[in-house]
Structures are given as C-alpha cells and as structure tokens.
Amino acid sequence: METQTESRLVSRPTGSNERSKLIEQYGCGPVQLTGTNDALYERHLVFDNVMEAAEIGARERFEAVARSVRDVLSQRWIRTETTYERKDPKRVYYLSMEFLIGRSLANNVTNLLLDNITKKAVQEEKLDWYELLEQEPDAGLGNGGLGRLAACFLDSMATMEIPAVGYGLRYEYGMFKQTIQDGWQHEVPDNWLRRPDPWEVCRQHETVEVRLNCSFEVRGGTLRAVLGQTSALIGVPFDRPVVGYGGKTVNTLRLWAAAACDYFNFQEFSSGDFVGALAETLEAESLTRVLYPDDHTALGQGLRFVQEYFLVACSLADLIRRFRKTNPDWRTLPDKVAIQLNDTHPTMAVPELMRILLDEAHLSWDEAWDLTQRTLAYTNHTLLPEALEKWPLIWFERMLPRHLEIIYEINRRLIDEARRRFPGDEGRVERVSLVEEGAARKIRMANLAIVGSHSTNGVAAIHSQLLRTITVKDLAEMFPQRFSNKTNGVTPRRWLLMSNPALSQTITEAIGDGWVTDLSQLNKLKPLASDQGLQQAFRKAKHEDKLHFSDWLKRTTGQTVAADSIFDCQVKRIHEYKRQLLNALRIVVLYNRLRENPNLETAPRTFFFAGKAAPAYQLAKVIIKFINNLAETIDADPMIRGRLKVLFLPDYCVSMAERLIPAADVSNQISTAGYEASGTSNMKFMMNGALTIGTRDGATIEMAQEAGEENFFLFGLTAEQVTGSRGWYKPQWHYENDPETRAALDLIFSDHFSRNEPGVFAPLRDALLTNGDYYMHLADLKSYLQADQQLCDLYANPAGWSSKAILNVASSGKFSSDRTIAEYAADIWNAEACPVS
After folding, report:
1. Is the pLDDT of residue 31 over 70?
2. Among the four residues 525, 559, 605, 684, which has the most C-beta atoms within 10 Å?
C-alpha cells in the first residue's frame, strides 16, 4: 500500500494544458519502467547486480530505478549534444568550485515529467519510494549558497534551452558530515561516492593533461613539493545529466577527477620504498579527494591553490577543444564562447586563457588580451575582505611561473593606465594593483578577475552598489561600464514543484501551471490573497507540510515537534555576520519573559537552526554549542516545555532543506546589514509561503520591495547606519540601558545554560562586550524583539497571516533563477536558446 510519504514524493500537479503539451511534445511516450517486454527496472536490477532476488536490498533497487531513468534521458542527452555540434551556437561555460546539486532521482523524474510512470512503477513493484530516495546521498560537491546557486543556474539554463556546460571538481569526499556530541559540532568524513553513482558517465577518451612546474615526493609521511622537476596531472571527466523541465534539453555538468600519468617507479618499489614509488599517484588522487581542505595550514592552502588551477586548466582545455572543432579562426572565440567565473575561485582562467592564446595560438598580446576580456565574465559573491582570495606570489613562482609572467605584464599595463588616468594618485595605484605588497607578496584574485573580464556583477542590488562604491571602488571608477547587478534566483522546479507538492497543487488549481516555467505568473495570486477559499487551501497545504516534516523528523532522529506550533527557521552556514547568535539571544529573552510571567499568552513556537561551522572557526562552534545547550535547558524546564522548543538539526543539506522550507512559517534573514551579498534561502522560504523577519540586507530588500514592506517584518540598522556607527558604537550601552538585553546576557554568563561546564560561553562575552560586538548583535536585539512581537500578533489572526503569506508567494516571481539567467544571457553572455531537434 502506498504510504503518505510516497504519495507526497511522487504526486505532482496534473491536468493542465501546459503540462499536457510538454508531455506530448517532449515526453517519453511508451517508456516502460516496469512490467514485461524487457522492462528497464527489472533488467537493471538483475543484470547490474547479478544477485539472487533475496539478496537485493534497497540500495540496489535505488540504483536500478536511477539507471532506468538515466536510460530514458540518455537519447535526449545525446541529441542535445549533437544539436549543439550541428548548429554551433554560442555556448556558456559555467566554472564553479561548488555545485550543491542535492539528490538527483526525484529531480530528474520531475523534470522529465515521469511522475505518473514512476508512481505506477512504485505501485506495481511494491517499492517503498521514500526508502529508495533515502539511498541516494546528497552529492558532496558544495557547501552552501554559492554551490546551490550554481545548481539552480544549471537547471534554468537547461530549461531555457541555453547551450551550457557546468565545470567543477569531482570531490570524493564532501565538506564533512556534521554530528553533534554534548552540544558540540564534530566532523566526520562525507564519503558520498562510497557506492557507485548511477548518474555519472566517465569519459576516459576526453582526459586532459595538466602540467605543473614541480613534482612531489613523500618524506616523513608527508607529501611535499619538489622544485625544479616538472610533473603532470591527468584530468578525467565525469559527466552528469542536467535535465531541463519537460525533458527538452539535457545539458551536462562535467566534473574533473585527478589521476596520475601512467607512471610507476619500479626501482623505488623494488627497493622497498612502496609509498615513495606511488608519490605522484598519491599527489594526484589527493587533489580532488576533499571539498575545501583546511586552509588554516599552508599545506591546505597549497592544495586549494592547485585545485583551482586544475579546475581552470582542465575546463579551458576542454572548451577550447570543443570550440576548435568547428571554429578554425581564434578571433571568433568571444562569439562562440562565454565563460562565467563563479566567484574568485576560477580566476586563474585569466592567465590560463592568455597563455593558450599567446603560446598555443601565437597571437599578439593585444589581440589575446582583447579576446580574453571579451570571453570571460566574473560574478562576485562577497563583500567580506577575508573571502576575496589572495594567493602567495611565491606559489605562482614555484608552480606556475609562466602564469606569473603573464600576471606581471597585465599588472604593468594596468598600473600604467591608472597613473595616466589618475596622475599623482599613488594610493589608487597601490589599491588597484594585482600584487599586494607586504612581508609575503600576494596576488589579488578579485582584482585579476575584474581586470581580465568584460563584466563584473554583484548578486543583489545592495551588494552590487556596495561592491562598486566600497569594496573595489577604485577599479569600478576605472571601468564603470563593466559593473552590473544580477540579483540571484532559485529554480521553482526543485524548490516549489518538487519539494512542496501540496502548495504547488494549490497554486495550480488557482491559476494553472504556467508558473513552473514562468514564475512571474504567480502575480495572478495577488487579487486572490483575500479569498477565503484560497486562504483555507493555503493553510491546509502548510499544515500538511508541517505534518510531513514532523513525521520525517520523528522517524529519522526520534525528536518530536508540535505541528501546530509556529515553525520559526534559520538555516544557513554558521557565521557571526549571519547572526545565529542574535536569534539565540531573542530566544533567551522570550524564555526570560515566560519565567517571569508564566501566564503570558503566546502561541507555541518551535525554533529550528541548521548549518555547519567551518572546522577551524571556533566561535561559530561555540554558537552551535550555545544553541544546543539552550535547547536542552528549555526542554528540561517544565514551566516552558510545550511553549518554546529549540532544535539544532545536524548535517544540514539540500535534502533536509527540501523538507523543512515548505513547512516553515517564519524565515529569519537577520545578517548584519551590508554583509550578506544576496542569500537564496530567503527566496526559497518566500516562495513556499513563509513570512520573513529580517534586516534590510542582500536580496531581502528586493523581496520586501516586491511584496511590500508591510508584508515583511523588517528591523535593525541599515547598511549605511552600520558603517556610520563604526567609530562610536559601544555594545556596553545596550547592556546598561536595555533591561531585557542585560537580563539575557547575565543569565548566559551566570552559567545558567552551562551548569556542568562553567565558563564555556566566555567567548560569547568576549565577542559581544569585550571585543566590541563587531556584527552589532546588541544594537539590533531590541528592534528584533519588536518585530517578533508584531509577527506573533499577526499569527493570532489566521486570515491576516494567510493573506500576507499568499502575497509573499505571489511576489516571489522575480526570484526565479530563470529570470536571473535570462539577464545573464542577454546582458553578459549574448547567448540564445538552441532548441534540440
């Protein structure tokens, strides 16, 4: 019998003209996943595993279903590539160190319009669909918003039929799996490729050789670089399908795995130096073993440096090979190729493309530089100085000396131009220079990306403004025409259609399903926001989502939550500027209020936190510890239990987000104003009917503009006020003059939440009081609490809450990644759709 969870995961809105047209034009026709006639599922189940039926488990059944779906899309995948080769359109190449794609089975089923076929197969074979989905690990190819954005962009490009390839690295291990022990974060390996991945296809015939100006040896158990000896790495491409909605186009995500050349030092091995004989192999295989090696050590930084060059070298060699197949004239490169650098990580594409054009194509400097700039474009994702990469110059000197020569020449010309245009302004010259002087000279990768490309964009209006006026002000004044804004977006296929079938069905019944590929159609909901029938349907869908999440949480963790409580969520990477600590302080104040007045009338509330702290980020780990101790203390208090509950959900990932976000009532977007570039979780929550309590930061500003600020709970200092108060802000003032702030801090520092670990939260005192509260938690706490009270007052009015939530959904159309990609294609790439035929 089909379970409630199974029904939720395979049912989609049906019956509309738009969907029927897509199925008729691009669907799979007589595709048969089960049954007789050599059905795909049974064939894969038996012949791939060569096992007795009794021995076949859930993992093998998942692989059989996944390979069956891959069989269905394979012909379309091949046809997509042959269409591109035949029509020779301009192609987009998206270079990113992260692609946080999540699981692929349900997403591919959704985009191929195979829902009904899959549902039938599940019923016929008496499969547990939920169990099958759980067998697929989240792909360990990214960490946070940067990688998830890249995945959304790939989905949109395929859906919009834009010829595109994503290029990344095939990490054997993801960042880490997060566990919580005694409240503390612990990291364990995320070996997501431990079992065969049924989606990837290894292309051994398209390997790339990458040469370095050093080799490697094992000495004292450590892999070390040996100067003066060149070495080579082999990039092995693994392709994954990127299915556009409707199955019309299947683009490719190509991931590079590092391997050694066919070399083996037999003499060393025979003499007993078994490890030394395999040094080159160890070095190669280590390169793509881990996402984000610990860069607090020189060894980890060096590995990251080589990872970035390896991605760039493999990807450029591959795309140049594609280009040269049909384009003998190098001067047509910008007409046929658009390379987008997703943050500073692929910035070595600037000197690498110059090297190819100078040394292999034998072009003049001026012509090579013109082609490079017109081909490359750069997206900036951060205003934090520490996140703008700077690599030690000596590393280029030792490993990539030719690239350093090219960088020096680029810099010489840049400085000459700066002195010509701004005579006497040596401060400006120093700031725009690609070389940062100091005890250890460094190459400024953001400056290199800006100078070496024709476009630099931010990812939200406020971010792009601050980027131009503060972060890289001098370069923006030199090249104003290169700067633009492209506000981020998320794919509605994964983040609404697939993850929230209850709300999707409600929307489709109200306005049809054209919104799936044109999210601006959600505007049609605005006149209906006060309709009692739609409000009731919306509340029913939200309650269903909350029940599903509660059931999943109980089944997977044993934790119970009340589905009729307010689900108040903050899920994102743990960082001081994202201010999970401010959220926790709010909860301490609410806790204090209930302790002082047990008869205070408030709706039951469940506060969800989730996110990972970087392994070396100690204060972030202390914040996680505090949240867990806060949760434990509240649970142990019989007077508070049932009224407030705090949960830290470990190992946050795409799959968890797909369950939690549809269930959320409240989205916390509370970063210090001026520090969040854009955010994308804010868009997902809005799209799924959660109301936002947040600061005027990142894309939240534009979301409030779309929906109307009266439909948001905005609070706190603006970016201008944060900057303007830097010189005089004193957090002690709030401690001395805000009674609730003082009471909350006194309770924390009295070890009320750490009775068995006295002093464990002293770092919080240092951050908030002793060291000046750099991210201004205390400055915004009182305003946060006032907005929180407004939120609670509205929640007491179901019709008013539902109306505002529907208006938020209706206003989320701008935040589709389809809109973002359309802007990239028109304004930056000059790329057009190329329908598969």
Report:
1. no
2. 684
